[in-house]
Amino acid sequence: EDKAKLPILEGPKLYKRNGYYYILAPFGGVEKGAQVALRSRSIRGPYEQRVVLSQGTTKLEGPHQGGWVETPSGQGWFVHFNSTGAFGRITYLEPLVWRDDWPMIGQPIPGTDGGQPVMIHAMPDTGSP
């Protein structure tokens, strides 16, 4: 628990990849929050942390409560929602790539280890025509 760096951490998802345990979770609230990745070689910790998806320079505020999936061809994707008030919670699909065993979601933000939502991207390769 880190109320200063990760306020309102919620909706965690646990994954294991390449010998690391990962917890992907949103923090900071639905309206203005971001996604964090925590990783450890032991499920008991200690965990390192990195913000992997935030608003960046986009208009999409608070990318929230997502999950990682892989296509049959091995492409990584992150599905999340964004709360838009009267229009409800809109679902978004972001590309996810691995760099030094950390997920990088969306479009890289220069000078950081994280990404921001993409507005346009190629469709996932699902292995089907």
How would you characterize the overall build of this protein?
By secondary structure, the protein is mostly beta strands. It is 0% helix and 47% strand. It has no helices and 10 strands. The protein has strands at residues 13-17, 20-27, 34-40, 48-53, 64-70, 76-83, 89-99, 102-105, 107-108, 115-116. The strands form 3 sheets. It has a 4-stranded antiparallel sheet with strand order 1-2-3-4, with no helix packed on it. Strands 5-6-7-8 form a 4-stranded antiparallel sheet, with no helix packed on it. Strands 9-10 form a two-stranded antiparallel sheet. It is globular, with a radius of gyration of 14 Å. The N and C termini lie far apart (45 Å). The model has no long low-confidence stretch (mean pLDDT 88).
Strand and helix map with partners:
Blueprint: E1 13-17, E2 20-27, E3 34-40, E4 48-53, E5 64-70, E6 76-83, E7 89-99, E8 102-105, E9 107-108, E10 115-116
Antiparallel strand pairs: 1-2, 2-3, 3-4, 5-6, 6-7, 7-8, 9-10
Which descriptors would you attach to this protein?
129 residues; mainly beta; four-stranded antiparallel β-sheet; 0% helix
Summary of the model, kept short:
The chain contains no helices and 10 strands. The strands form 3 sheets. Strands 1-2-3-4 form a 4-stranded antiparallel sheet, with no helix packed on it. The N and C termini lie far apart (45 Å).
What's the number of extended β-strand segments?
10
Order of helices and strands: EEEEEEEEEE
The class by helix and strand makeup works out as mainly beta
* Global geometry: globular
Strand content: over 45%
Q: Span between N and C termini? A: 45 Å
Main sheet properties:
4 strands, antiparallel
User: How helix-rich are the residues, as a percent range?
Assistant: under 10%
> What topology, given as strand order, has the largest sheet?
1-2-3-4
Q: For the residues shown, what is the average pLDDT?
A: 88
Taking all Cα atoms into account, the compactness measure Rg is: 14 Å
The tally of helices reads: 0
Low-confidence residue ranges: none
